[in-house]
Amino acid sequence: MTEVPAESLLDAAARTYELDRRHVFHSWSAQAEITPMVITRAEGSYVWDGAGNRLLDFSSQLVNTNIGHQHPDVVEAIVEQARTLATVAPQHANDRRSEAARLISERTPGDLNRIFFTNGGADANEHAVRMARLSTGRPKVLTRYRSYHGGTQTAINLTGDPRRWANDKADAGVVHFFGPYLYRSHFHASSEAEECERALAHLEQVIELEGPQTVAAVLLESIPGTAGIMLPPPGYLAGVRALCDRYGIVLVLDEVMTGFGRAGSWFVAEDEGVVPDLLTFAKGVNSGYVPLGGVAIGERIADHFAHRPYPGGLTYSGHPLACAAAVAAITVMERDGVVDNARRIGEEVLGPGLATLAARHRCVGEVRGRGVFWAVELVADQVTREPVAPTGGSSPVMAEAVRACKELGMLPFTNSNRIHMVPPCTVTDDEAREGLRILGEVLGRVDDLLAKGDG
Length: 455
Known about the structure:
With about 450 residues, this protein is α/β, with parallel strands linked by helices. Helix content is about 40%, strand content about 15%.
């Protein structure tokens, strides 16, 4: 590989930044107030910025590079597919699409054996809701507060975090409810069992007060991701499944972020012994190398459309480059034990390491997670549990935490008052420990800020 002079790399990065600021319109941002980092290359668990600094990617970008950056098998599969058949309309059969559907359906729980491919997670949730409404003839969808389901119009209304507010016209047929979150319990619970029981009773009351005959679906992230990685208490997902059965409601589980190894299993639903009617996925299915998402469909919904057309589709549904990447990614994950690695890293390295940090630092309210899917909740006071930043917002403390992470060599994923530790599923023990070491230094700086009253 030819060595590129450092000054040439810096010039190229400066040009990239200049053009970005002149022409690119960024999502979720006030355009004049952002300074996006230039990323020039990536490999495995690392990315390099425009100044040539190597950063441990503990964001997995948007929690999607499950197989790590630039995996050679996946890159080669895309290249080979591009040489053979770069694109094909969705009405035709294609070998990579068929194989990707087989591999996905073999890993989804129960009878989720039909795959409708989309371009990502938001439109997967859009289509899942459309399927539920059409198959039941009912208009309403129930979703929880503290959730994220995508940025398109229906998906953002399904969302339960503040990004919904500016887009919510109160006409989408969505009703929000409280899910289990023991650390900040809405139900005055003192144990996981109480939280589960009271959260299920609350959901049933919402169903009854809304009118069960009007409710098409309950849509849940199996583990809410961006909203805080709150693991459901034992029995909660099974309890929601039972409620849906009781009232004839379609259960949709959003595994866009949790699927394909992120939480230490192929899908959380299977770990919980729950088979939804519809399961949405994206992100880790091919680590985002080419945009891909989808809906895994059970027999109840598939039968409804057996002899009546489904009124929906996308030009790029099951795009061959994306499906080739999915086939390669799933094959590598199976061959190399990537899902098992994610589970082991959570159990043996990240989980114990984060617990140690929580005991050491006064700014940590709670750590929670599994696999390579963890949240560290930062608080100004461990007794009152006052967060260091508001829901959906930031603060000087969080801004300093992000700056310190990057200065020390780690690219973090943050939201509100939380730092999420979400490295690739391929992360090594040493890389995970390095991330913990950096986080420990960052938490020390946050402790000092809070002690000075600079929060």
